[in-house]
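tool_call: predict_structure(chain=1)
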Amino acid sequence: MAVLALLWGSGFLWIRLALQHGLTPVQITVLRAALGAAVLLLLARSARQRLPRGGGVWRRLAVAAFFCNALPFFLTAYGERSVGSGLAGVLHATTPLWSLLIGLALGTERARDPLRFGGLLLGFAGVLLIFSPWRESGGLSGPGALALLGAAVSYAIAYAYMARALTATGTAPLALSAAQLTAAAGLSTLALPAGGATGSFTSADPLGLAAVAVLGIASTGLTFHLNYRLIATEGPTGAATVGYLLPVVSTALGALVLGEELTFRAIAGMIVVLAGVSLTKHHRQPSRSPVDRPVPIAPTAPTTPTAPTTPTAPRD
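tool_result:
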């Protein structure tokens, strides 16, 4: 669990380093998805799990890959151009709140439990505290922060869709997720010409390439495998506790490695957000909604809340 939290939570650090050393958000998205897919394909092959067949399954996988991988991977990298990696991890922690809100809108969730509803309000109060729109100066605003919130919303949309469309495909989880990340790599590659990806990958700073390699292999591919094993041994509730460590890890690494400032407002907002998430997750009513992915969430995102039978690589 500790290794998973460290690898998953460090994804925001690797994104920031890749950005600082010459890679664009689109390039980071493509490399991350491709490397993560390669790891999962090897793991699926070693487990003798075959990729899904049939155009219908792959069309659904393409939709899931867009909302759960390609789009949030890009939005996270875009957002971290102007927002620190620590705060990026905190904003990603709002994914379960958006999942509950979408569930309420779709009728798959019911706000019968006042503690859950209170947790939803508390979580968004934490987001408001982080953004502090009432401050004339020093308030968090701009497209970068909104992109990070958009990544969290995208994950929430993906989980709602995956619970309906991908839980009964008959494909083993490793192979299904490998296929999904492969589709994400393909979708991201199509955006390279329009994503400001000038120059080739080989001309990028070696440190930037190393950072995105760790991001794709360790913080995306390997974390999925560790998360899958943790769910199998500890159950989804036990595995979900890792989600509470991710913002702490991202904030600590951002301060220690990148020298990012730890403001009282950011720390207070993180505590309030995690308290709200805790209430929504531990007082949930039985429903048809997916088990929440421990979040960035990545990727991340990760990841990165996943559907019960299809744990997916994280959003970071």
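agent: Confidence is low (pLDDT under 50) at residues 285-314. Proceeding to next step.
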